Amino acid sequence: MIPATLNGYLAISVALFAIGLLGVLVRRNTLVVFMCLELMLVASTLALVAFSRFNGTADGNTFVFFILTVAAAEVAVGLAIIVALFRKRQTIQIDQLNALKN
Amino acid sequence: MGHFLFNVFALFTLVAALGVVLNKNAVNASLCLLLSLVGVAGLFTGLEAYLLAFLILLVYAGAIAALFLFIVMLLDSRGDARPTLHKLPIAARVLAIGLVVSGFVSFLARGRLPEPDLAKLPAVGANLKLYAYQLFTTYLLPVQILGFLLLIAMLGVIVLSKKFDGMEDIK
User: Fold this and answer.
1) Which residues on A lie below 8 Å from B123 (Cβ)?
2) pTM > 0.90: yes or no
3) Which domains, ranges and CATH numbers included, belong to chain A?
């Protein structure tokens, strides 16, 4: 049992971020890598909200709006890039997308 | 919210996040992402940020995860063969994972921030007026920049998904 304190929330946030980073490093499917990036963003918002709650200031909460908007824009552009890539190369596996190598 | 619900939501979030990483099938991974976001919304409720919990459900789980599902089905990706660590960058990956793990461990071992008394602090997340006040005073410029960002993203997506005649020979 983790107590629902500031340190507890931060531990969850750090763990979520670490899992996201692990996914970015380990997975080969571009879409799944992208999902793991989203997980990392959400982990950072969790830390912000926890700090905001335990400090009694609202700035952290307001920042979540900005992160949410940036994440939405990022997803739109990223998925458009992935679709364009798939149209061109018929694959979204990272190790087959090596046209810039050499 | 008590410690029990916090633990339930935390466990739910982390297990679903692991599901995103470990699932072979991209459809299952995106559904796990959705579950993980629901867990995060629960954690936000525990922090009394009700509006943000709702927004996470609405924007992330409702729009972004659904968009992921659409694209996964559109691209018909058969999932990749097992998450693996292979080939040349293995040293870099081992280093990176080692850094993440050591950061997590050192946070658990020594990251002891002072615990404020929650009863004395105002529940700022539950105060809707405060969000609006801050967005329209302190953070007015960032809000406008975000508007431009969304506009640029929209234009970029239109350009990216449009087919141009002269673009075919770029390989």
Assistant:
1) 53
2) no
3) 6-95 (1.10.287.3510)
